[in-house]
Queue: 3 jobs
Job 1
Amino acid sequence: MPASLLIGLLALASLLAIAASLSFGSSGIDAPWQRLAAGDPLLRTIVLELRLPRALAAFGAGSVLALAGVLMQALLRNPLADPYVLGVSGGAAVGALAVMLVGLSGLAVDAGATAGAFGAMLLVFAVAHGPGGWTTTRLLLTGVVVAAGCGAIVSLLLSLSDDLRLRGMLFWLLGDFGYVRTPWMLVALGLAAIPACLLAARPLDALARGELQAQVLGVPVRGLRMAIYVMASVLTAAAVTTAGSIGFVGLVTPHLVRLVIGSAHRGVIPAAALAGGTLLVIADLLARTVVAPRQLPVGALTALIGVPLFLLLMRRRQS
C-alpha cells in the first residue's frame, strides 16, 4: 500500500476515534451532538471539559510513544525495542510515586515524574559512555539494568504506601487519563516531533542498515545516536508524565506500519504517530465504557490489545 494512502486512512480513523471518544463515556450520556448544539450546559461541561481533554491527551500520548518506538528501534537496530527499554519510564514512575507517597498531587506529581524521567536518562547516558563512546549493546544493557533498579524502587514505594494512596499509585502506574485537563503541551510536542523526525528520515534509513554503511554515506553516527536517544527520552517522559506507564503502543504500532508500507522512515514516522494516537484513543474509550460507570486502567487494555497483535506479528515474521 502506498504510504500516502495509509496516512490518509489513519488520519480519517483518528478523527473517527476522537469523535467516538467525545460521544460515549462512563456517564451514560451518549451521542450528545444535537444536545450540545442546543447549548446544554451539563453536556457542554462533560464533552468540552472532561472528554475532549482526555481524548486529545490519549491521542498525543499514543503519538509520541509511537514516535519514540520508531526512534528506539532505529537507534538499537532491534525491532523488539520500545520506548521504555532504557529506563525512562521507570525513572518517571519512581519520581511520581515518591511525590504521591509524601501526600502531594497535581502538578507536583508531573514535576516528580519529569525529574525522575530525566534523572534516569542522564544516569543511563553517563554510565553507558565508556571507551570509544556509546555502543548499542552498552546502551541497551545499561538501560535494562536501570529499569530493573527503578522497578525495585517502585515496589518498595508501593509497599510503604497506605491504603488511601495505593489505588491512585497503582492506577498511575497502569496508565490513566482521568485527571488530564491540559493536554495541549503534549499534543503540541507530538505535532512538533513529527517534522523534526522527518528531517532525520534519510539518516535513520541509513542507520537502520548498520553504522558502517551510515558512515560511508556521510551520516554523523555519534551525533545522530545522541540526538535520537535524547528525543526518544523526551517523548517518553512527556507521555509517562501525562498518563503513567502505557506499554505496547511504541512496540506494536511501528511493526504494523512497516508491515503495510515497508521500512522507509519518511512514511513510517507520520503513519506510526497516527496509528499510535488512534490506538490509544480507542483503548481509553474502551477503558471508560466496558464496565461503566467504573473505569479500567488504560495500560492494562493496551497490553491486552498489544500482546495478541505482537504474537501475530511475530508468527507472520517467522513464516
Job 2
Amino acid sequence: MSASRAARVIGLISDTHGLLRPDVHTALAGVELILHAGDVGGDDVLQELELIAPVHAVQGNTDPPGHPRLPLAVDLEIDGVRVHVSHGHELGVPTPENLLARYDADVIVYGHTHKQLIAHADERWVVNPGAAGPRRFRLMPSVARMTIRDSAVAIEIVDLAV
C-alpha cells in the first residue's frame, strides 16, 4: 500500500475590486497557490496576494480588457484534479448547472455574483469564494480554501472581518 501524498492547499478569492482586506493574509496563510476569479481591481492587489503565494488570476467584467496578467480563463491540473477558473460573467448569470454544462473540469471556480457557494454534483465541484473586496449586497466578505489530497477535494469558505 502506497503512502498518501501531502495535502495541497489552494486559496480561492474573487471580486476584490481594488481592496485587499488585511485578514486575507490570515485566511490564506499557508496556501501554496492562490486562484483569483476576477474583478481584481489593479495590479497592487495581485502584488499583495503574491506576498502570500503565487497567483493565477482571470479577468472579470470590471477589469480592463487585454490585461497581460488577466486571461479570460485559467485551466490547470493539481494532483490529478482539473481546475477551471473564470469570472462567470461570460455565462450571463452563472449557476452551478450552467457552469457544469459549459466547463469540463473537476473543480470550477468563479466569482461575479459575490455570493458564497459550494456545490458538489457527480463528483465535480463548483465554488464561488464570495467577494473579498468592498462589502456589497449585505453579503459577508469571504475567501475559500481548497484542499486536495489523493485526488479528493475539500473546500471551506472563510469569512473575513467586515
Job 3
Amino acid sequence: MRLAVLGSHVDSSLSPAMHRAALAHHRIDGTYDPRVVDAAGFADAIAELRSGVLDGANVTMPFKRDAFAQCDLLSNVATQAGAVNTLSHRDGLLAGDNTDVGGIAAAWVEADLSQDAPVTVLGAGGAAAAALIALRGREVTVVARNRERAQGLADTIGGEIGVGTWGEPVGPSVVVNTTPLGMQGEPLPHQVLQSAVGLFDMAYGNEPTPAVVAATRSDLPVAAGLDLLVAQAALSFEIWVGLRPDTAVMRAAARAELSLRISQERRP
C-alpha cells in the first residue's frame, strides 16, 4: 500500500510518523511519504491516484479545494465543507473525503468539552468551516479580523450562527481557535480566554501553544492541535485500510517525533 501527504509545506508534517507507526503496528505492508508539491506536482499525484500507483493521500493547504474539484466521488461531509483532505482510489475512480469535521467531533468528545455551552469560533477559513459543520445545531458565534468574511462563512454554512467583532470580549463559551495564532508562540487576544469554559486550539507547534498552557493552568478542558491531528489521521487510515487504528500508537509516534524535534532545536 502506497500512501502520501501532499502539500506545499508537508516536510514538517507529523502524518508520516503517525501513519507509519499504525501500518507497522497493524502489520500492513505499506509506505507513507511526505510530498512537497506545486500545482504540477499535485496534478501528477492525482494521476497516480487515478491509476492506482498511489492508494491514498492526505491533502493539506493549498490544495484542499483543488482536490475537491478533481474527485469523481465525494462524501457528504466533503460536499458540505467544499474541501477534501483525504483521497483514495476506488475501482478506477478518485474518491474524496473530509476528516476535519469528524476529527473535530472525535477530539471534542475525547477532551470532554462541553456539549451544551455556547461556542466561539476564531477564524473564517476552511478549518472554521469544518468546525461550524461539526458544531451544527449549537449556539455558535464566529469571530474574525475580517468581519465580512466571517459573515460570509456564517451565511454559507447556514443556521443560527452569530458574528462577533475581533478584539471584543466574548461571553462564557468554549473557544475554538482555527487561526494560526499560537503556532509561532503568539498568544490569543487576552480577553478571549477570560470567560472561556473550554478551549479547542487547532494551532500547534513543537510545544504547547500559549493558549493551551493558559487554559490548562486554569483547569479548563482542552483539546489541542495534536488531539485533532490524531483524530483526523485515524479516520483517514480507516478509509484507506478498512480498520480503525490504535490511536494510542499514533499519538505516541507523534509525541516521539515532536520530542525529537525539540531536542534538535535545543542542541547547541
